[in-house]
Amino acid sequence: MIAGVEIESFTAFGSLQLSLSPRVNVVIGSNGTGKTHLLKAIYGLALAGLSASEDRSAKEVAADISRKLLRLFSPEESRLGTLRPSGVKAPTRLSLVSSDDTRVAISFGNRSETVQIEADAGSTGHELQPVFIPTKEVLSLVRGMRHPDHDRATVEMIFDDGYIDLAELLVRPGFEDEASSLAEDPRLSSVVRELVDLVGGRYRWTAGSAFRFEPGRYEEKADPTRSKSKMAQAYQDATVTRFVPKGGSSLASGMTAEGYRKIGVLHRLLCNGSINPGTTGVLLWDEPEANLNPKLMKKVVQLLLELSRNGQQIILATHDYVLLKWFDLLMDKGKEDHVRFHVLVKAENSAAITVHSTDDYDQLVNTGIAKTFSELYDAEIERSLEGVSL
């Protein structure tokens, strides 16, 4: 688990320290306060904390992380110095502190060609593969990103590595690619099924190197190999859960709603093990509400809370009041739910960005999101009272 983040002189940030919940973290802030930059910085640091393989030297690892930072943030000039605030002399330093108090840090200056990596010996808290889900959905883009006839350099000019890395995770084979039973971790069984129920089907990677939407649902079916066993029947173990296609032919992913595709991304990552609480690293999701029907947000929040209860650390960034409020309403302390809100604020007279963290939703009344919805409510009341004599 990642316990904290420390940032000095990086992109929009001068100095920032963040204490993270091991469960759910929600980053809030107006445009330009660095929400996406923060998520990408944590993602890059988590990758830097992965154990180096025997076939890569420390110098090669540092070069890889340097390239990854540049590919994540895509500055016009491909050099580390462009990721630093203008006019800053102090070196840039980014650090992740794990739950066991060990840390991994990277640092660089204006003229650095590669980052310096520092990692405590024996660190275990963030040596797990992180997952970053960007704002735009990716399922319909995977075919174009990975098509052999497309120029790789052009693809990388269009998409940063947040999108490209996710595309690589999505094409990993999963149990839903086979005509077999649902063999996922029992902890996640309800999550996987409910994601499919939300959109009325699943997205499968096809032989044509594209994702297609297949209508259907998971159902309990008799297993002939088990039903012959009286012992299995005695323990009600003669059925398996299978996906049952319904409603005709499949559709190209691009012909389905973008909000559904975002649900499909989460389903796919769970099915192929890219997200596996306790085994994989932090899940970072930038604006999960984007292009999502508000009616689906309650269920998405419920599913994210369920993942966190099973040990998945989550950090998401949002602009949406509805998503925020559902976290407040659905959080169940009896199930040890914990949601920490991090509000990024830009000073009025300078570019300095500060953070205020709280575990109390009621302390968010002064955020831009809350103020905007309060203004809308006041305007609605004012309009409804026009012409009414008291």
From TrEMBL:
Record domain AAA+ ATPase: where: 21-337
Chain coiled-coil ranges: none
Listed InterPro entries: AAA+_ATPase (IPR003593), ATPase_AAA_core (IPR003959), Bact_Antivir_Def_Nuclease (IPR051396), P-loop_NTPase (IPR027417), Rad50/SbcC_AAA (IPR038729)
Alphabetized GO MF terms: ATP binding; ATP hydrolysis activity
GO aspect biological process, one term: double-strand break repair
Gene3D superfamilies: P-loop containing nucleotide triphosphate hydrolases
Family matches, as PANTHER family: ATP/GTP PHOSPHATASE, EXCINUCLEASE ATPASE SUBUNIT
Protein name, entry field: ATPase AAA
